[in-house]
Here is the input.
Amino acid sequence: MKPFFINRRSFLRRSVAAAAATGLPAWFVEETLDAATSPAPRSPSDKPLVALIGCGGQGKGDAKGAQKFGDIVAVCDVDRNRAEKAATEFNGAKVYTDFRKLLERDDIHAIINGTPDHWHTLINLAIFKAGKDVYSEKPLTLTIDEGRRLVTAARKHKRILQTGSQQRSDPRFRFACELVRNGRIGKLRHVITSLPDGPRRGPFEKAPVPPELDWNFWQGQTAEHDYVPERCHGNFRYWLDYSGGTMTDWGAHHNDIALWGLGYERSGPISIEGKRLIDPIPRGFDAPSEFQVDYLYANGVSHRCQSTSGNGPDGSVKGQPRDGELPHGVKFIGSDGWIFVTRGKIEASRPELLSEPLTKKKVELYMSKDHMGNFFDCIRSRKAPICEPEIGHRSVSVCHLGVIAIRLGRKLQWNPSREQFVDDKEANAFIARPQRKPFTYAMV
Here is the structure.
C-alpha cells in the first residue's frame, strides 16, 4: 500500500474549517501550523520505560497518555488493589507498594506521579535523586516551601519535570494570553479566575482500615488521623491536611493561566485578602468550598479568584451561576475590552478582538500542542518543558497564598522575590508545615 499524503494547502483548508468550531480564528491556526515542527521518526526500540506512582483515576489517565510515547512497565500504590488493577490495564506491569523500591530500578527512565498533593514533593525529590524525569500532577506542592525546595533540586540534579497543568498546551489558553500580553485589550486592569464550588459535606465517621490499604503510609507527612473513607482517594483534595479544596485543585489550572496572561508566571502578587463565603460542616470537609480571594500585583493589576455555583467540583455544569459569578474559566479585562477563556471556549467583548491578526508581536509564548508529548520531547532534548518546576511552583503558590489568606481572614502583604509575607510571623508560619516522622525530607 502506498503511503497516504495530504498537501499542505489542503491540510490548511481543513484546519481553517475546523478552527471555526473551536472559536480560534484561521490566522492563528495557520500561524500555529507554520510554527509547528514534526518530530523525527523513531524506531519501536526508541521508547523510554515509564512507571506510574499513584494509581487513581488521574494517574492512570496520565499513564495512558504516556503510552503513546513510552512503555508502562511498573505501577505503585499504597492501596494494593489499585496497583494490581492498574497492572492489568498496563500489560501486566510489575506491582510495587513502596515507591522507593520502584525507584531502585535502573531501567526506568521516566515517572508519572499521580499521587495526592501531600505526596508530590517527597516523591518528586526522590525521583530526581534516582536520576529520572517526572511528569507530576498538579497542584505541584502542598506548601510554598516545598516548591522552593523542588525548584532548587531540579536545577541541582538537572532533571526534567513537567507539571500537569495541561491548559498551557491548549491553544485557546495560549491564544488568550498572547492577545493579552500583546495589548489586544489595551491596558490590562483586572483578571477574574472562576473556580467550581467545592463539596460541603459531613460529618463523617471513622471506619476500619481496608486490608489492602497502608493507611499510615498514605497519610505520610501529615498529622495522623483515624481512617475515614472520605479522607482518602479522590476526596483527599477537600481536606486542608492534604490539599486546599478547589482553590488549589482548579486554581492550579486557572490561576496558572492568569499568571501567564499577566506575565507574572515567575513571580506573584504583592497583597492577598480572602474569605470563606460559607463555613464547613464540623467533622466534614474543611477546605474552603465557597470563597473569594483578591490579589494585587506590582503592575497595578487586580485579580479576583472566586468560586462559582455554576460548576461542580469536577467542572461539570450544575446550573446557572449566581449573580456576580462566572462559569469556571479566566476573564481578562482591559481598557479596550475583555477576553474570556475556558476549556472548549474562548470569547471576547467584540468579535474583532479575536478575529483580527496580531501583525506585530512583542511577546510570543511557548508553544506546546500536546502536554504529555512536550514532556517526552524534553526528556530527549533536555530543554525546559512548558510547565517546568518554577512555573508549576509559582502557579500553585498563588493558590496557597489564597488559602492562607482565607484561613487568617485578613489582608496579607507578600514579597514575591523573597517568597515571604512582609512582617507577619503568623502568616509566615504557613509557608512550611511540620512533617510527621518518618515521612520527612530525610526519607528521600
Notes: Residues 119 and 220 are 7 Å apart (CA to CA). Confidence is low (pLDDT under 50) at residues 1-12. The first strand starts at residue 49 and ends at 53.
